[in-house]
Amino acid sequence: MTARYVAAIDQGTTSSRCMLFDAAGAIVASAQKEHRQIYPRPGWVEHDPLEIWANVEEVTAGALAKAGASAADVAAVGIANQRETSVVWEKVTGRPIANAIVWQDTRTDRLVAELGGEVGQDRFRAACGLPLATYFSGPKLRWLLDETPGARAAAERGELLFGTIDAWLIWKLTGRHVTDVTNASRTMLMNLATLGWDDALLGAIGAPREMLPEIRPSAEVYGEARGALAGVPVASALGDQQAALFGQTCFTPGEGKCTYGTGSFLLVNTGERPVASQNGLLTTVGYQIAGRAPVYALEGSIAVTGSLVQWVRDNLGLIRSAAEIETLARTVDDNGGCYFVPAFAGLFAPHWRSDARGVIAGLTGYVGKGHIARAVLEAVAWQTREVVDAMAADAGAPLTSLKADGGMTANDLLMQIQADVLDVPVVRPAVTETTCLGAAYAAGLAVGFWPDLATLKAQWRKDAEWTPAMAPDVRAREYRQWKKAVERTLNWVE
């Protein structure tokens, strides 16, 4: 039987899912399961890698069952993953030596300051495109080796392996120790120009080369899967935000997207040469198809957007479901003078301030829960505005429209606020699950399920569009107030 589908495994911050896509790029079946968020101490965030793997196995089998399909119906499987989350495991047993340290985790704050020395956060930026920050994987690896008893000695004996979640899943699926260029570019250990592990970076950060996976293109057959997809080529891996860029078919320099998930991430394709940011953005690899030059991107990373809605639900109890945030926010016409800056783990782009902590500013007796809900949605939009401004400064040209995807795009009020704040149209695609779609597209290209990028581009469809409706003077005033609130978050952690 000729394979009819391509599968995508999306291993995200809060859940794992598997989707099957047909030749038209339409979703045929989907299965999803959440995993635990482990908070051992304030600022620490962990996941259990074995729980994640068990969930991946479950959702993969579940998606096949929902489609009434078997592995024989699947041409290839691709992986999209939460990026900087770091795992160390034993080469022989496959047992993790500790829980995975999640990208949001801030335990490496002092180590990052130590690594910066007199130069500061830009010490390694020229080589790897990234500022020194708790966000990235290299310092997490150093912490695991330094703080886990016996780990560094075991690593030096060649007994341990390191990887981001893509490498962990590829190893579990195929037995190969492989990562792709997009995930490697988030470790602070890969040289952006050579696309190889950099000896100077490895030495400075303290990462043994023998632990590291082989770096490969994003769209390439890495091996054959085991389990429910036995025999299916594992044919792509992309960090989740790069997968969304690919799924939004941003194949031309200047095209970009913003994914609204746990955090929000705006990426713009900059072509075959890396562009050094002067305004707090990240220079990263966008994707690489086997046999072709890599495509680079500029990225603005925002730590807390969708997770802020979850926080309002779980910690404050103002809403019972994430969808209710829109209903509650629509009970008022504005924020009532209230501004919410969710710097729960510091501020990411364009500030990169790990000393910041969240604030709700402008409270008066007039402010009610509807105003707070509105301020939550506006926090997502204003954080995106800051990144868009930085992107325009680096690129030398303003944004003309924004392709938006991810779970929060189901919130029509948020999308309208985003268009108002940016003063440009916001466009939602017909398939909003572009992270999975991008992983599937890359895997399908690698095995010839789709012939070329032009075919994928032709399949993109618009679902909805929002145009700006905010008066310019109101926009300017609100942005000033937002920036004042951001200033209140700084220098909180001593």
Could you describe the 3D structure shown?
There is one protein chain. 54% of the residues are buried. The N and C termini lie far apart (63 Å). Helix content is 34%, strand content 23%. Strands 17-18-16-15-21-22-23 form a seven-stranded mixed sheet. It has a six-stranded mixed sheet with strand order 3-2-1-5-14-13, sandwiched between helices. The chain is an alpha+beta fold and 494 residues long.
Features:
494 residues, alpha+beta, 7-stranded mixed beta sheet, 6-stranded mixed beta sheet, 23% strand
List the helices and strands and how they pair.
Blueprint: E1 5-11, E2 15-21, E3 27-34, E4 46-47, H1 49-67, E5 74-81, E6 86-90, E7 100-101, H2 109-116, H3 125-128, H4 137-147, H5 151-156, E8 160-164, H6 165-174, E9 178-180, H7 181-184, E10 190-191, E11 196-197, H8 199-205, E12 214-216, E13 219-224, E14 233-239, H9 240-247, E15 256-260, E16 264-271, E17 282-287, E18 295-302, H10 306-316, H11 324-329, E19 339-341, E20 359-361, H12 369-395, E21 402-405, H13 412-422, E22 426-429, H14 434-447, H15 453-458, E23 462-466, H16 472-489
Parallel strand pairs: 1-5, 5-14, 9-12, 15-21, 21-22
Antiparallel strand pairs: 1-2, 2-3, 4-7, 6-8, 10-11, 13-14, 15-16, 16-18, 17-18, 19-20, 22-23
